[in-house]
Amino acid sequence: MTDSDIDRAAAAIGEGELVVYPTETVYGLAADALDPDAVSRVFEAKGRDRSKPISFAVPSVPAALEYVRASDRERQFMARFLPGPVTVLCARREQVPDELTAGRDRVGVRIPDHDLALALCERAGTPITATSANVSGEGSVRRLGELDRTIRETAAATLDGGETAGTESTVVDVSTGTIHRRGARADEIERWLDEH
Fold first, then answer.
1. pLDDT of residue 1
2. What CATH number should be reported for the domain holding residue 189?
3. What does the DSSP 8-state code read for residue 144?
4. 18, 144, 152, 182 - which has most CB atoms within 10 Å?
5. Is 149 left (phi over 0), alpha (psi -120 to 50) or beta?
């Protein structure tokens, strides 16, 4: 992958297009998370139920805090586990659209621990959708060759990061101490929640 590949992918996101990108878990499907039309295209490409929210990815905790309100405990959690294979549910700010959160007041935040994903987040200049690059109900994609034809044809760009680890991120609501989906580092997260 070259810088110009990442620039082209970031430009596609800026134009409302979809991009497939690698993370430290599985391949993700990126669009401008603040653009309701682009978010709708992600739902359409995946055949995803619109009542199921989608998370967003940003390059850093300070970037995340521009789009969410986080308690001291949530900030401590982020400082400990991000970047990493963790999705943290936080109270969204006004600019985060209903389309992304399925009308809920909380949104999932991802800061991928992957150089290519972070570079894309940085260059896109906006939160990008952080949802797996697969048709809903199908297995997650660990290498580009596994991409469903529908996703491949819908994406304006694909960034090849080789094979990914394949373990889903752990989804956690720190405010209630609830793990909504157990994935990478779930036991460690559980211990942290018990102790803080």
1. 72
2. 3.90.870.10
3. G
4. 18
5. alpha
For 38, 130, 132, the CA distances from 140, given in Å and listed in that order, are 21, 13, 6
Closest residue by Cα to residue 23 from 89, 67, 82: 82
CA–chain centroid gap for 195, Å, is 27
| pLDDT of res. 105 | 97
Residue 1 CA: distances (Å) to CA of 22, 61, 111, 167: 11, 26, 20, 23
What would the mean pLDDT of 139-163 be, rounded to a whole number?
96
CB-based contacts of 67-72 (< 8 A; 24+ apart in sequence) = 67/34, 67/92, 67/93, 67/95, 67/96, 67/107, 67/109, 67/127, 68/92, 68/93, 68/96, 68/107, 68/109, 69/93, 71/174, 71/175
Query: What integer best gives the mean pLDDT of the chain?
Result: 97
Domain that holds residue 125: 3-195
Does 2 score more than 90 pLDDT? no
How many domains would you assign to the chain? 1
Quick check: helix, strand or coil at residue 44?
helix
Report the alpha-carbon angle 89-111-34, nearest 5. 70
Which of 119, 145, 96 has its CA nearest to residue 5?
Answer: 119
